[in-house]
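Propose amino acids for all 159 sites.
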């Protein structure tokens, strides 16, 4: 499967494990519930470890463990659920997370620019057949008026 990462189409080398699935070597993501139940085992996993969060999951609970994760996957069950935009911004600005932040679920081309401004740098689109067209979304706007993760100063201070 292909995704958009850092504004390029790349092959996805991550496996999203269900809570009941057996652990496998390589790059995996797990749910918050599985992390909480099996963190001793998962800390010794051979490969990258990622965590999947929904807008219902308490972000503050994972802050002490952030250094253990190579990637945080933010789940967007419907395109109108914007709670994970805030999670991405908090992960980057308040908690200093430097790893990959991925948007997964009902992610639309129209949202890519705004998601990137919040610190999300990889995207699994609802329709992966539109990846090439979706790349143009990052160029929809040349400026943003407000401060963003990518440009911390608002436009009026950049004049």
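Proposal:
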């Amino acid at each position: 499967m292909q995704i958009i990462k850092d504004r390029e189409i790349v092959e996805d080398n991550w496996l999203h494990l269900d809570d009941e699935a057996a652990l496998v070597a390589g790059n995996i993501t797990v749910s918050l519930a599985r992390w909480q139940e099996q963190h001793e085992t998962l800390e010794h996993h051979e490969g990258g470890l990622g965590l999947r969060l929904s807008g219902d999951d308490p972000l503050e609970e994972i802050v002490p463990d952030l250094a253990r994760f190579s990637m945080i996957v933010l789940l967007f069950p419907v395109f109108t659920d914007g709670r994970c935009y805030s999670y991405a911004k908090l992960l980057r600005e308040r908690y200093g997370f430097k790893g990959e932040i991925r948007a997964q679920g009902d992610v639309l081309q129209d949202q890519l620019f705004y998601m990137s401004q919040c610190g999300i740098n990889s995207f699994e689109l609802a329709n992966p057949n539109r990846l090439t067209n979706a790349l143009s979304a990052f160029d929809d706007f040349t400026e943003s008026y407000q401060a963003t993760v990518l440009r911390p100063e608002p436009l009026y201070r950049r004049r």
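Residues 83-94 form the longest helix (12 residues). The chain has a mean pLDDT of 90.
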